[in-house]
Every structure is written in C-alpha cells, then in structure tokens.
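@channel anyone free to eyeball this complex?
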Amino acid sequence: MAVSTAPRPAAPKPLPNMQRQDTWWIEPVLVVATLVLFIIYGTYRAFENNFYDTMRIVEAHGGLKNGVAFFGTYAPHYLSPFYSPPIQDWYESLFHSKMAVSPSLLLLAFPGSFRATCYFARRSYYRAFFWDPPACAVREIAQARRKNYTGEREFPFVLQNLHRYALYAIFVVVLFHWMHLVQALFFSDAEGKSHFGVGVGTLIVLVDTVLLSLYVFSCHSFRHLVGGVLNRFSSNKARFNVWMNVSALNARHGLYFWLSLITVGLADVYIRLVSTGAIRDLHIVF
Amino acid sequence: MEKITLRVFRGDNVSGGLVDYPVETFPGMVVLDAIHQIQAEQDSTLACRWNCKAAKCGSCSAEVDGKPALMCKTRVDQYPTGTIAVGPMRAFPHIKDLITDVSWNYRMSAKIPPLTPRPENEGKPFKLQQADVDRVQEFRKCIECFLCQDVCHVLREHDRKDAFFGPRQMVRIAALEMHPMDSLNRREQLKGEAGVGMCNITKCCTEVCPEHIHITDNAIIPLKERVADDYYDPIRGLLTKIGIIKRDTKAPLSSVPNDLTKIIVHEPRPVK
Amino acid sequence: MENYETYEYDVLIIGAGGAGLRAVIAAREAGCSVGVVCKSLLGKAHTVMAEGGVAAALNNMTSPDGQKEGDSWKVHFTDTMKGGGFLNNWRTVEIFAKEAPERVLELEQYGAVFDRTPLGDIAQRPFGGHKYRRLNHVGDRTGLELIRTLQDKAVGVGMNVHMEVTLCRLLKDGDRVVGAFGYYRETGKFVVFRAKAVVLATGGWGRMYKFTSNSWEGTGDGLQMAYEAGADLMDMEMIQFHPTGMAWPPGMRGILVTEGVRGEGGILLNNKNERFMFNPEYTPALYKGQFAETPEEGDRWLTDKKNNRRPPELLTRDVVARAIYREVEAGRGTEHKAVELTVSHRGEDYIKRKLPSMYEQFHALGDVDITKQPMEVYPTIHYTMGGVWAEPETCSTTVPGLFAAGEVAAGLHGANRLGGNSLSDIIVFGRRAGAGAAAYAKQATAGAIDPAQIESEIEILMSPLETKGGENPYKIHQELQEIMQTNAMIARTEKGLQEALAKILELQGRAKHMSVPGDREFNPGWHAARDLRFMLRTSEVIVLCAIERKESRGAQWRLDYAEKDDAFWGKRNLIASLQGDAVRITQRPLPEMPEELKQVVEEYK
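replying in thread with the prediction:
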C-alpha cells in the first residue's frame, strides 16, 4: 500500500509581494519612540541622583525657615517613584554616608525586570525592536535569521519564564507607592510639624499609584497564580472570583502598561520641577 | 450596482502572478461571492476552497490585501479603492491559485491525544458547573481555519514547523489541559515537541482569529505559566520536592498511543 | 489507461461528517482497518452548520417547582413520529429515541463540552416539535462541537484520512459493493479503494435549489453512487425547508438562522407587525390545543414552562415554513419578500450569551444588530429527509456490503425532521453503520475490482475536458436551480412539477455535451461538471416522487392536493430504484407498528 504522507517538496514560493498596504508601521514607530524617550529620560534621571525628594531639598537648605521660597508656607512630602523605596535614607541612617552609586540605578531593576518580562511588553518590543515580526503578516526584514529562531526557548529569552519572581518583587514597590501616597497627603510647616493636605503632586502620585497597581494586578502571571492554575473552578469559589476579577483587569493589561509607564515618568518630571523650583506645587492644607 | 476589481493570485507552486477580474457588486457582497462570480462567469479554473459561506467551517482562508482573512466574512465594500488583492495563505506549501496544502496542521493535531477521563469518571455523566466549562468552551469555538497558523511568524517567516505546533494546536492543548476531567499531563509535550516556548506572544494569532478567541491571553500565556510551574520555577520545584506542594497526579502522555492516524492528501508532486 | 493508487481497507467510510466519523470509531473499536474519504478538508462537513443542539431525552431540566420535566424515550419517539407525519420507520425511530441519550453522554467522554444546568448536568433547550426541553447544546454552535469531538476521537483511535478526494462510482463484484473509485481533487489523479464493506455517510443534497444552506458539497454524489449500484431510495420528495434562512442582504441569502432564536424567545412578525403564527389557520389539527393561543401566554412560557403552552413559533419546521410562505404570498411580507424575526426583547446580554454566533453572523455580514433590530427571514433548503433505504439495526442497504447512515439514509425523519434530531441521528446510526459494516467485513473476503467499471467512469469524467465547444456546467446548474426553486420548492403542483421534469430531462441531455477549460489540477469547473450529472439525476427522482405523492404531508405541500390522505398515502413510502437507465417509482406499504408502540403514541400524543 503506497501511503504518501511525505510533505510536499518545499519549492521556492513564487508568490508576488502582496504586502499589507495599510499603515501597520505606525504602531512600532510609536512604541520605539515612547520607550526610547523613557529610557533616555530614566537614565539621565538615575545618574542625576538629585531633585527626587522634596524633603531632602528642605534639608539641604537647612529647613523651610531658612528660605526654600519656592515651597511657600508648607513643604510637600513628595518622593519620585524612580527613587522608591527610599534606600538612600536607610543607607544613610545605617552607615552615615551617601551611597556610592545612585540608588535609582539599583531600584530600576525592580520595575525594570517586571516590565521587561511582562507579557504585554514582550509583545510590543519583540515587534518594534526585534521585528519578530514588525507587524502581523508583514515580512521580517532580517531574512538571514530565518531558521535559527528559537523564540523563548534559549538564553536570554528563556529567562522570561521567571516573570513571576519579578511580580513578587514589584509587590514591594507597589506597597511603597501607596506609602508614599499617604506621605504625600502631609505637608511640613517651618516648625517641621505635619499638616494634612492635598496638592497637585498628591493627585499625580495618586493617579500613578492607582495605575501602577492596576498594571501589576492585571499581570498574566498573577492571573495564573490566583486561580488560572485550577482546572475545576467550582471547587474553589473564592479563588474563582478573584480569578474572574483579575481576568477582567487583564483584558486591559496593555493599556495599564502604557498609562502607568507614562504617569510614572510624569510623576518624576513633576517632582523634579517642584524640587528644582521651576514650578510651585499648588496645594490646600487643612 | 458597482464595479470593483478583484486582483487574484493565479498560478501553481512554480509560477504565477496577479490577474485582474472586473466584478459587479451587490449589497452585502463578500470576497467569496466575488470569487464565485469569477468562477461561474469568467474562469472556471480558478481554484479556491469553501464550504459553509457562513464563517462556521473555516475553509475559505486566504489573504486579502495582504492580511489573513476568511473570504466569506470579508465584505467588499470595506475597500474604498475598489481594488482588492486576494492571495493564498503564505505559511503553507502552495498548490494552485488560492489553495495551499494545510495537511501539516492535521498531522500535528494527530499527535495530541483526545480527552482521556480519569478512571473514576469514565462512562459516567460528568457533573460540571458552567463556571468549570466556560474557559474551555472559548477554545472549542475554533473552526480550524488555520489563519492563526498562517499569520504566526514562527511558521510563516521562520518556517519552524519542526519545532512548534502553532497557535491552533496551543488552543487545542489548552482545551484539554484545562478540562476538569482530563487525566493526562500535557505539559511535557507542550514544552517538548509542541514547542510552546517558540511562541514570543506577539499576538498576531489573536488579531486574525475570526472566532475572536483570545488565543494569546487565554490559551498560550496560561500554558506558558503552567510550563513555568513545572520547569522554570526553582522555588516551586524545591517545595514540590520536599512535599509542601502536591505533585501533579496526571498520567504521562506516553501512556496513550498516538500517531495512529495518517492524513493522506495527494502524492507529492514533482517540481515542474 | 493511467496508473492509479489503490488503497485497501476492511471498512471504507465515505464522508467525514458526524456520521462518518462516528462510524470510524465504531469500526475501529471492532478491530477493523478503516479508511475515510472526504471531499473537503477533515472537519469541514455540514455537521458544523447545525446550531441548536442534539436532541436526546436525558430529562435534565427541572420546572420551577424542582421536579424533572418528565422526558423519556417514549416522548421523544412520539414527537419524532408526529413530526414526520408518521411516514417514519417505527423501528428506526425506536432505536433512535432509546439510544440517543447514551450516545450524547458518550460524546462528553470523548471531549464535548456542553453547556451546564445549575445542577451540573448537560443543559437542554426547547425546540420546535419537541414536547420538552430536549436539545443538548453548546451555545449556538453544537454541530461544530460535535464534529470536532468526533474528529479528535477518531484521529485518536486511528484511521487513514483521504482528504479532498471525490468518489464518483461504487465498484461492484457481482451484487456486492467491494470498493469505490474517484479522484484527488488537487491533482486530478485517479484513486481506487478496495474494501470489504463500505459505509455511505455523504450527507444531503440541496445545491439544485437556489436558496440553500448547503455548500458546494451538497450535490448528492453519495446518494447517486448508491442508486447506480442498485440501492433503493425512499421518501425522495421530502426535502426540508428551514423556515428561517437569511433573506437580506442578497450575499447572505439562504444562510441559516438557527431555530434556537425562536427557542430563546424569538418571534415572527409580518409587515403589519402581527405575530402571524397565532393565526389559528396555521396550526395543524394534530397540534391543536398544545400551543399558546395568545402572545401573552407565549411570553409567560419563557419563564414558566410548566403552566403555559409554548408559542406557535415553535411548531414544526414544515408548518412554520408554510406559514411564512403564505404571509409573503398574501403580500404581508417585507420589501425583500421575507418576514421579520426578532429577539431583541430578550436583551443584549442574554442574546450575546445564548446566541453568540448568530449575533456575530448578522453583525459582520448583514450590518444588523440583532440585539436591537429584527432579522429578515425566508424558508431555505436545509435538509433531505429521504435518501438511501437503510435497515434500522445495522444500517445495511439493499446492496450487500453497502451501509448508509446520517442524512443520506432515509427512514428516521419521515416527512419532516424535527430540529436537533439530525445530530442525534448521526451519532446513533453512525455508530450502528460502523459496527454493522465491521461485522460484515469480518465474515467477508475482499472482492475483485473490475477494470471495466473504472474505465467507464473515467470516460464520463474525462469527457468535459475532451469535448470542445460544449455546454458550460455553471450555466446548466443555474437553469436547474431556477426551475427547482420555482417549481419544486415549498408549494408544489402537478403542472409545475411536470414542467420541472421536462426541463430536467432537457438539461440531462445537454449535460452529456459539456466542456470545461483547463486541466485536472484543482479545476472547479471540471469538478462541477461531474457533480452536475449527480444533481440532475437526483432532481429527476425528487420531482418524480413529488408528482407521485398526491397529498400534502410534512415537507410535501401540494396545492392541488392540499389535504393529508392518511388512509392511502399515510400508509405508503415511495421507493425509487434504477431500472435499466430509467427511474422506477414504486409504493411500499409502511411496516406495521407493534401494539405497545401504538400505545406509547396514544399516551404521549
């Protein structure tokens, strides 16, 4: 019996170049522009190692009394998300000296690794930076790499499988974000007494914190860990309900990725502007 | 009645090119209607696959203006230029005109054993809640049009059919892996020959799916996470070793025979 | 003569729809080697078009008081016989009603994932002609679920699948069928299958009509191959018109709107905004008093099925189709000669959850949002009740070695099929045919292949490629569709049918001299030429039977014989068989139903 199951000989495809005619390239261009801008700014800010904590500015001037005029009567407690958690403060209280490197360079590893291994971010940068593929059904440009593509099976991309560990780490960051939000609700007067209040910075920190939380808690790994791993949901109603809620958030994971990336940058920009005295923080103190 | 131009790829796996056909439209006309009109009135040798013409069978997969799509679901009035290019799926060996050899997909599917209920559930009506089956039912909507396979750059651009079963089969495995009654451990196959690691989740499969299955978010990523549980999570591995996390009791896939089925489409045709 | 490949199997299964695949599983379980041939790709058969559900009396549903509805095989048996105008073979229906629940539960074991009830059982929905909620379903894509399940299981048990092969001749050794001959669609190369037993699971034929839900495959080749091999055909006049095919836009004409829309509360309206199904004229005597008589009662039934009767939109398909036809004929239709079906009152969420593919179909293809707007519907050709006569126990036909199951076989549905019965038909009789063929194959030896039969078929196949200046098959097909649509559709008369017959005979003559351009490599024109000859012959049989049956029953509606004639025609099936080159129509008395089943019918009517 002649069973012919051999695959058809792979003849060179004579198909004409029926490329997509639409504006598929807009997305990768935007992704590259946004990420490059963010990375340049983030690096600059990390090396700047200054203007990230309004209370440090007050201290550097010897307190509000000695005239940090641009804060006005009350100085806000704003800390840039790039320098959170405040390891510089901890280091100083332990060793009584400044850290040898910018704390931001160390801290960036946490959100950095979480964002770098994020399933949504992978989709975006594999497309925009690696052109693997640049867009759906668009020819990849680096034809030489055709056969040796290994996806996420080999180093370094196999490390993407550790996303969950980056998630555990980012929980700490989120916790500190909320703590900083609480701090941002208090304003110091010249005597050093704290007063409850709300400033523009508080609102920016609030938006940033909420969006970061939405981004983190809509994570695919989180969705898996809270309930996705189960096969029979009816046997664990509580986890099922959590999974349903996380799934609902997860549908907008990509949106939260971009929004939280933008707001974290804006929060830093704002705190820097306030710290340098370029603008004055508007606030109401009760 | 308006006239449009259908620019159809004509040819076999040796030579071919685009041929323009004038077509008269009617309200609600889809690309497949236009192809049928050409067959009946202009050239009956134009080859295309189709069956239900209602987006239920997944036969008429092609690439319309360079984008993978079902011809029966693509309205001609959404192309304002009046010229529509139609070509075959590019990820598969080309046969003639709009027809490609998609049998590879069936061969990979044959390597995946069907649902194998645990012995205690065998032969008894299942007791399941809607919540238990909702997730699996999404995957079961698949009509096997293979557009996801066509758009997947792993298969399309890198031609790694040797290392990756493709999004369609990921969806199939997901439906079995997450089935509350299945007794087989599918993760070894997933990591191994099925090659879930080849996917770099660029989501094009999800974008083209005519059934709107969230292939990447609901099937592939959860499968990657399950594989990570078993193979890439050192702490979890340790906890399993010392017995804090319960070991998976599913039977290895090798316990059931597979590959019993042969898919025979034609004799390989020599290149002319 | 050119060389051709030959494959040998214990059991050859022609058709890979639900019936064919279920037969594969049964034949494999009996230890036979199995080859299955499909005209399309695997898993693309018409089974995917079935939407509403698979009917089986599992009795899973409970009334608001917590009691089970009380369904049983007896009720299913009675409903099916009633729906079929009692033309059904009682034994076929008995087996069917008794085995369907078991087969459905088996599907679940194979991997089908049905919708669930709060108690954790398979959910069932109401459907036209079924007394209780009986259609086990998966949203509105039950057919897809069923074929995918059977496909995966069949691949798991092992078979050789010959995809995109068209068979055009059953090969005989004496009286017995011993194989089949055909060609690879892709290359045009000929291929021979040698088998100890052959199962025919080739589905129905509807392409000879203009408004049809059938794909290009529905040309009746399986039926004609059996007929040419000497098998008896039965009930060929009985062709089901699904009452609700899409009527607008024209690109979508004929595509089905599942009966599930009405099962979920959809209502039919004419252009005066009347629910015309409440017109008492439309309810046949057999169903009087069993349906809601006011729209209010019909609405209440949606929430309380026990204390209210179901709305008349859920009458059997033949009844609803005729009512729509009459409304449109009386000028109460829409501008596109259709009626309106609306379900928007059920709310957006409910519709999207229960009828997702209908929502999608209208949204994407028709620019209609069914959660807000009505659909325009008109009857479309949908299913063929008649076909190859098959013995109920093993599905054997009148030709030794040939078995038939599913839509191609006759006997189960009588004059009209109930929705949901086709899916249970294919799993019940697919299995029986597979097992029957396997048992036959085990005691049979492989027969001899007669090259003369192959050569005569090759001659027919090659003729359109070799003829120059002949007729265009597409043109003949179009003319056939026109005449069948006007004269042999829902309302039939002697005069119209005679005209159709004359036209068909004329077309048959012209079809002897067709020519198509191109070569044998995937050439749709060439394929169409062979299919057309099958269709012309099938059309002739349909029209002859429709002329012969001088009464109105089920799908057969004669304007010149508007009454049901229980005394004479109610006791007879029409059999068509080949005599020489002509069609011979004979009347065959229905087998007598045993006393205990008569009592069952009495009890549950």
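from a first look: Chain A is about 50% helix and 5% strand.
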